[in-house]
Amino acid sequence: MRLRLFAFLIALCALTVWLAFAQFDESRLKPFSINHRAAKDSPADVSFLLDPPAGKYGFVHVRNGHLALGNGQRIRFWGVHLTDWSRGSVMLPSKEDAPIYAATLARHGVNLVRLHFLDLFAPRGIIDSTRNDSRAFDAGQLDRLDFMVAELKRRGIYVNLNLNVGRSYKEGDGVPDAEKIRWGKGLVLYNPRLIELQKEYAKALLTHRNPYTGTEYRNEPAVAIVEILNENGIGVGFRAPTPYYDNELTELYNAWLARNRTPAQIRRLREMAGVEAGAPVPRLAGQEAAKAPQERFYTELDFYTSLEGSFYQDMYGYLRSLGVKVPIVATADHAHTSSPYPMLLSLSKLDILDGHVYWQHPGARETPSPMVNDPAWSTVGRLSRTAFAGKPFTVSETNHPFPNPWAAEGIPIVSAYAAFQDWDAVVLYTFEPKRDPNWQPYMGDPYDISLDPVKMPELAAGALLFLRGDVRPAKTFVERTYTRAQVYDSRRLPASERPYFTPGFPPHLPMVHGSRIRSLESALTAKVELPLTDPIVSDTGELVWSGWQRKQGLVSVETDRTQALIGFVKAGGKALRNLAAQISNDFAAVVLTSLDSQPLSRTSRMLLVTGARVANTGMKWDEAGTRASTQGGPPSLMEPVTGTLFLKGLEGARTVAAQPLDGAGNPLGQAILAKRTQEGWSLAIGDPVTPWYVVRVER
Fold first, then answer.
1. Residue 525 sits in which domain range?
2. CB-side neighbour CA atoms (13 Å) of 421
3. Looking at the whole model, is its pTM more than 0.85?
């Protein structure tokens, strides 16, 4: 019976995967290659959004709950990382290539680069790999970093300096079990030697003088943000990688109990844990936390909250003592399958709150599905839970990782709702410069957007929408408050309460109103009444999320300067004020945005980006349909969006023409003339194969 049931489940899974992918016609995939080195004076260049050099007005700071320049003007950041996970990539480009990549990012509207994983050993990061410790910089790599920062600064691109990210340790560091702790996740929050080494690294980097800018990093106004830790934390159930660190944490816990609990309270904790009088109180392990008595559970959370808070306050004070002038981030809210609120008690004491979310992270091994069909679990919904009233909120990691067939939805949706939620930064993970000038383009890992035929053009469109504020902030911001008990109890709520872990809070609210936390230490959060509808309409009326209940989701963006149809466009059949689409693709993203400050109805130049599925040549899926079993190789492939677009309401237009662009953003063939019809200017797209066009209107 069990064997038959197992066989049935396997067949059902196979059918589900087949249904998910049967709709795709592989013959529609066509080669299209991004080429940053061949870029010239692209008509799609949006570097006018930047104001070079970075830091010209002084240091970035917090003003009225948002990030601002030295002159008090508010600034939003639209960014990428520089990393090197895929073959042929390099995190810190050579001096010959640094200008190419800095210009590429500026051309696509990037005004912030998150310098991530600098603390890896050379030749990847800046740590000298020839020594028996991790306490010195590699001179060549440090020079590359300095030169790249100078090139970014010159073009108006700020940097976010990460401190502890992926540092590993050697015997000479004087770190117990150095070879066994890898990145020291959790440990760096409490081990004295690891904390000492973090401070040493921070001082060495921040007091280093960049010879190409003439400024130490602590005094560099092109540094916008400093982050203490990347995706790090500690809490109930934590188990260190070696007995040394596990015992050390238990000793710290018992020392904290001696200072913060009465003998009677400690005696009760021992009784709950089943240990003898005088024995150390053990920490909860694994599943024990779910059933532990409230007193024991709350006590342990008090300890972890105190430990994290003390670490971040100490590091914050140390960085300020070094002369760091810009806002400082503790770490990101990054685990969305559990409640973040105990961790946010300490993170919210620093200058900026930050979040990381991916749609269907490859580690989860989910069958790829379109986000437009699941607004409550969307990246927008999950990210929105972390923002605090009166503080800037940044998203320093997000992406729709390759090879999700619906990844074209990611950048347009995130940029639109980030503007609606009035966030301060969105940083995509990741952009990987290529070392070899003759590198053949394809997607080398799930996160790299640098050669993605759809995401790179969408990067420019997203910059226009987000940096200009084309989507207005929500009219109403719903604020939440929590008691300390509610914060702690949220850790034991069922998965059905994710991502907000706040009973009575409708997870679709961030698509309707703004969302903020007011306090984690005040009154009980009140239940929010907001009926769930399809469509879900923002209170500004500019964003509509429709069709999701019937699994034909469509997000529409309708503003003066940017309009978009994202998702199942053909099934949705929706027309906007200036844009309508009759396309053959079942799923696509179509974004039309002004290339100047004028509305679409009056502008003379528009950027049109159309995206659908992206793949590599020879790529194959695994049997479960959850990831690529064969990554494939060059050239990169895309499913061109084909059919007819209607550009409407173009005041006084005499001629309308769309110039297709190649992978460098240069003109590709002849311009496509639109025809005047009753429905608007009819524009045939899809031939030649390209994801982007510059539309010109003559009056």
1. 478-534
2. 33
3. yes
